[in-house]
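User: Could you check the structure of this?
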Amino acid sequence: MSAVTATTAGTTTSTIALAGRPVSRSLVNRRYIRIELKRVARNRRALIFGLIMPVAFLLIFGTDASYRTTMISAHTNVTAWITISMALYGAMVAAVSGGASVSVERAQGWTRHLRLTPLRPAAYILTKLTGALALGGVSVAVTLAVGAGMHARMTAAAWVGGALLAWLGSTVFAAFGLFMGYLLPTENIMQILGPVTALLSFAGGLFVPLTQGSVFYHIAQFTPVYGMAELVRWPLGGDFSWVAVVNVVAWGALFGLGAAWRFRRDTARV
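Assistant: Sure, the predicted structure tokens are below.
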């Protein structure tokens, strides 16, 4: 029986058999998903970026005592606005880090080995998104727990709705990280994607509220972060925006298709 083994970020990945135990052609490969989740749990860099940075930003931006009493709606204070924004940022960073790990796998020849198996490109993308979602979910939970300790005030529906939207919306940025993982060099990919993600967050109005009708407001609507920034804050009492929905769907499709295209091209020859 022949098999392929890969090592990612110091973690030895379980083997995927090429004979005797063929890889399923379905989109959901449970064995490979288990491998990916173990890899994510052992990736210290992704854990640091995804768990520590959003909490640090929350403590920096949300410690002003006046934010606890300043209300932006009947049941929501400024601390809550900052908390839900940082929860999305944490999910984004975690998802980007998880997706970008493909650059390491490429350098080690893992993706080329996968082409020797019946694993479909879409299944590979789905597995990566699953791993990124797992890390993003932990990041959202930790950030919201810290925000609750800082007296963030919002309704129960806002807590749940904001958390779910931030978590599920992180798939867009997992696809972004995956796409960039095929385009950027392994040695400094997170040194590039970290600042880029922060810059996109500022441009999309995640860190600072945008003034409607301003030049920056119109520019922000075309950035990848704008849509999710608007949607996660919608449960806090804002207006629902179809422009935000279109933004999320369009960028998610672009990044997902780009990642699938690069996967096919990168592994065209084995």
